[in-house]
Design a protein that fits this description.
This protein is an alpha/beta fold and about 280 residues long. It contains ten helices and twelve strands. Bound molecules: 2'-monophosphoadenosine-5'-diphosphate. 2'-monophosphoadenosine-5'-diphosphate (ATR) binds next to helix 5.
Length: about 280
């Protein structure tokens, strides 16, 4: 009987319980995935102590605690260490091990939708944004051998910090957003990693896609709404579209694998999740 949790605040509207309930059914395991909100005025240390005491099998940890949890885990895997952030904890042999499934989850989702991306390691990739999500995706891209991954961000310094992760394995140019806008035609894959365009600011897009070329893959990690302005514009340019909700689904699948060791097909969940999101 797996006792799985979601820790964070505020999380009452999170889709994760819905996703993991489906996983539990599909994987045919006994278990529960429940919300454990830790309010800002509660003692984080005390709440975490309760989880240790309860010997929960694993949990996801989200905003605002992805960094705060680090001193409480016994070990970090390589991604979590490089990210400086944990979103998944598993209890194994009496120890808590912290993982970060965001970047790998994103790539799994992208490869699933566009398998040809796995053969695009020599192509030009552009990341828009340089926050936590960009960091995870950049790391996963360089780990998978992408040779050219540029980063455009409003604040150049944050992009430079991310570039340091590559240790020379990948070519990375740092661009201002205006430069990225002008040079969009040079890229085969453009990944929007910021929160710009998220509800209620659905009329915002991080850059204009005027110079985007036909057949480019345009990916947005925002999933509320599914049809962001960024993706609506990309569609008009006949780009190939990749919706944001699938990152959430695949990073959850990776967490579930870490907790249970169960691997199962989630192809048809994608559509179901779109419907679920529409109803929210
Ligand atoms: P997360 O961890 O979820 O990725 P974050 O760390 O707050 O979120 O990162 C937000 C990203 O969105 C950053 O790249 C940020 O740009 P800055 O580094 O310049 O702050 C970007 N961002 C947020 N709002 C923006 C806006 N209105 N215009 C341009 N970029 C924006």
């Amino acid at each position: 009987m797996y006792d799985l949790r979601l820790i964070g605040y505020p999380i009452s509207h999170s889709l994760s319980p819905w996703i993991h309930k489906q996983f539990i059914e599909r994987a045919k395991v006994e278990g529960s995935y429940t919300i454990h909100e830790i309010m800002p005025d509660e003692s984080f240390a005390e709440e975490i102590e309760k989880l240790k005491h309860a010997q929960v099998d694993g949990f996801n940890i989200t905003v605002p605690y992805k960094q705060k949890i680090i001193p409480y885990v016994d070990r970090l895997n390589v991604e979590a260490r490089s990210m400086g952030a944990v979103n998944t904890v598993v209890y194994r042999d009496g120890k808590w091990i912290g993982y970060n499934t965001d970047g790998r989850g994103y790539l799994r989702a992208l490869y699933h939708k566009y398998p040809e991306v796995q053969e695009m390691k020599d192509k030009q990739v552009l990341l828009l944004g340089a926050g936590g999500a960009a960091r995870g995706i950049y790391y996963a891209l360089i780990e998978d051998g992408f040779k050219q991954v540029d980063i455009a961000n409003r604040t150049i310094e944050s992009a430079t910090n991310i570039q340091a992760l590559s240790e020379g394995k990948t070519e990375t140019n740092i661009l201002h957003l205006e430069e990225a806008e002008e040079n969009l035609g040079a890229y085969d894959l453009v990944i929007q990693t910021t929160s710009v365009g998220m509800r209620p600011h659905t009329e915002q897009s991080i850059i204009s896609l005027h110079h985007l070329t036909e057949g480019t893959i345009a990916s947005d990690i925002v999933y509320q709404p599914l049809q962001t302005k960024f993706l609506r514009e990309a569609k008009k340019k006949n780009a190939k579209i990749h919706y944001g909700h699938s990152m959430l689904l695949y990073q959850a699948q990776y967490s579930f694998e870490i907790w249970t060791g169960k691997i199962f097909d989630i192809t048809h969940m994608d559509e179901k999740m779109k419907q679920e999101l529409k109803g929210r």
